[in-house]
Amino acid sequence: MKPKFIFFVPTLFLYLGFIGSTAFAATEHGLASYYADSLDGNKTASGESYDRKAMTAAHRTLDFGTLVIVTYPKTGKSVEVRINDRGPHVKDRIIDLSGAAAEELGLKENGVGEVSIEIPD
Predict the structure, then answer these.
(1) Using one digit for the tens of pLDDT, what is the confidence trace for 68-90?
(2) pLDDT of 6-55, one tens digit each?
């Protein structure tokens, strides 16, 4: 009779390989908006005060402190922001940007725009 662990080991390596693959860069596409300037100074979910001049953003699931690259194809511009809040609270949006990040991307004028979010390696 063959030991059962011989069948378990390859399955374990396959499983661990799958888990490890989530550590690589990921990309998300969808609508971005930005915080109103009037929210400057309000507390974020991370406990920090919102600073409209900082390169920060809100995301529903990414860990606080995660750096992401946001690209706005309409202008071809990209910015790096740090996640420090939860949101957006509008269903069809994937990220809320600080005023400075939206301005840098050229998104502030439109208020909402299609972006891609990449988590660098």
Answers:
(1) 999 999 999 999 999 999 999 99
(2) 444 444 343 334 344 334 358 999 999 999 889 999 999 999 999 999 99
Q: Measured in Å, how far apart are the chain's first and last C-alpha atoms? A: 45
Distance CA 19, CA 8 (A): 16
- What fold is seen in the domain 25-119? Barwin-like endoglucanases (2.40.40)
The domains of the chain are located at 25-119
Q: Which residues contact 108 (CB under 8 A, 6 or more apart)?
A: 34, 99, 102
Q: What backbone torsions phi and psi does residue 5 show, to the nearest 5 degrees?
A: -65, -20
